[in-house]
Amino acid sequence: MRLTQHGILALSLLALAACGERKAPQAGADSPAPAAPAQQDTANQPRGFARTPPKPLPDIVLTDTDGKRFDLRKETAGYATLLFFGYTHCPDVCPVHMANIARALKGMPAPEAGRIKVIFVTTDPDRDTPKRIRDWLDSFDPTFIGLRGTPEELAAAQQAINMPVAQKEAPRDSTKPDEYGVGHGAFVSAATPDGLIRYLYPFGFRQSDWAHDLPLLAKLAPVATSDSGTIVISRAYAFAPPSPDEAAGYFTAANAGTSPDTLVGITSPDAKDASIHRSVQEGNRVTMQPVGKAGIAPGDSLVLAPGGAHLMLNGLTRAPRPGDTMHITLRFARSGDLELALPVRAYGDAE
Q: Are residues 279 and 186 in the same domain?
C-alpha cells in the first residue's frame, strides 16, 4: 500500500495522543487494530504502508542508555531499522508495538534477526531516565536500543521524518502532576539497509504481519552504492529477452544525500544502446517515450519497475538467459559513475 506525505501526516494526527486513555493490555498481546492496513497477502510484498517517496533516516545524534552518543545513520547502516518514538509510561500503544516486534523477532533465525535494529526514542525525557528506558526495553528484548535527547533534538528528529512533535498532556489529576500522558505519533518507521524509510506501521499491526514483514525488510539490502554514498541502488534486475535484439531492465536509485543529483547517461558492454523509457497510456494505446536526464531530489528515488519507467537495452551483444548477469554503468552528474550488475530473470519472475 502506498502512502503519500499527506497521508503520513494524517496517519500521525489520527494516532497522536493515543497513549493516554486506553487500558494497558497484557504484555505481548496481538492486538486487533482498526488502523492495520488491509492489502493483498503476497509472499514477497511487505504488508506495511509504502512511504512514497522514501525518506532518509534523520541525520541525528542522540544519547543511548549507556550515556554514549549514538549517530543514528552511522550506527544503523546496513541494517533494517525500526524507529519508534514513544514513552515508557504509555499504557497501551508503546508496549504493544514493542511486544509484537519482540515476539516476531524471536521467531526468526538468529542471523536474520541480527540484521534488524529496533530503536526506541523517548518522547518523555523528563521521566524516562536511562535506567528506566533500559529496564523497560529489557522486558521486551535486551537488544532493543533506547535513546534520549534534549527537547530540541527530539523535536528535530520527529520533524525530519514528517512526524508531528510529541506533546505533553495536562495531568488528569491536578494533585498528581507527574501522572500525565504524552501525545505522539503512534507508527513505526521502517528503514531498509540502505538507510531509507520505505514503510510505515501504524498501531495495531499484528504479530503475524510483523513476522511476515521483518524477514523481507532485512533482505532488502542495497546492491550498489556510489563512492560518495549518496546514490543507493536496490531492486535491480533484467528480464531474459524474448528476442535477441533488446531487453528490459529495472532498478531503484535512491538519493540518500542532501543535494539533488541527475542520472545523465547509461552505457552497457552488453548492448549498443541503453536508455530509460516510460510507458504512457494514450487512449487505448500504450506508447514508450524516452526519458532524457532524470533528476533525483534528496530523499527521493528514481523507480524503474514493470509497467512504468524501464531501462531499454537495444542491440544486444549476446542473448542472456535466466541466471545470467547483464552489466551497466550509470553516470550521475554529482556522484559520478556507478557500476551495476543486473541479475537476469524469466518474465513473470518479478518482485
A: no
Three-state DSSP at 283 gives coil
The domain containing residue 20 runs over which residues?
Answer: 2-219
If asked whether residues 210 and 239 sit together in one domain, one would say no
Of 71, 26, 31, 28, nearest to 201 by C-alpha is 31
Cα–Cα distance measured from residue 279 to residue 259, given in angstroms and rounded to the nearest whole number: 28
**For the segment 234-253, what is each residue's pLDDT rounded down to a tens digit?**
878 899 888 888 999 999 89
Task: Look up residue 224 and give its amino acid.
Answer: A
Strand partners of residue 237: 250
When divided into structural domains, the chain yields a total of 2
pTM: 0.59
Beta bridge partners of 337: 331
DSSP E strands, 193-242? 196-201, 224-225, 231-239
Q: Cα–Cα distance between 230 and 241 in angstroms, integer? A: 32
CA–CA–CA angle 200, 202, 204 (5° rounding):
140
